[in-house]
Amino acid sequence: MHLQYNIHALHGFLGNQADWSVIQRNLDHNFHSHSLFNDSSIFSFNSWAEKFNQQVHSINSLSNNILMGYSLGGRLGLHALMQNPGRWKAAILISTHPGLRSHEDKTARIASDEIWAKRFENEPWEDLIKAWNA
Fold this sequence. Notes:
The protein is of the alpha/beta class and about 130 residues long. The chain has 5 helices and 4 strands, in the order βαβαβαβαα. A 4-stranded parallel beta sheet has the order 2-1-3-4, sandwiched between helices. The protein is globular.
């Protein structure tokens, strides 16, 4: 018996579902690209992961799912894996940071994120993207 896998892909912060279109064309119905930002009522990684795991279950309740995430998508995917490890056969995480541990690192990240938030609100898009990608 040949077991087919379902790949569930999560894009990065500045990406969207279309980022995976080349792969999706080749894998057809076994590839599911998900949007990270389709529900504005979710405010935590844990609540996002819970909703995502429910969505994956509605697509395929079996455990032949592979999670693929890039950057923020990988970080959110880690939470989905921790919440429901039995749902996932494997994971492919690209440029994914597992999270900060020390209080000092978290404080520094919050300060950095605040600076980036102000830049996103005020700078011309082309200049902002150049800086972000650098």
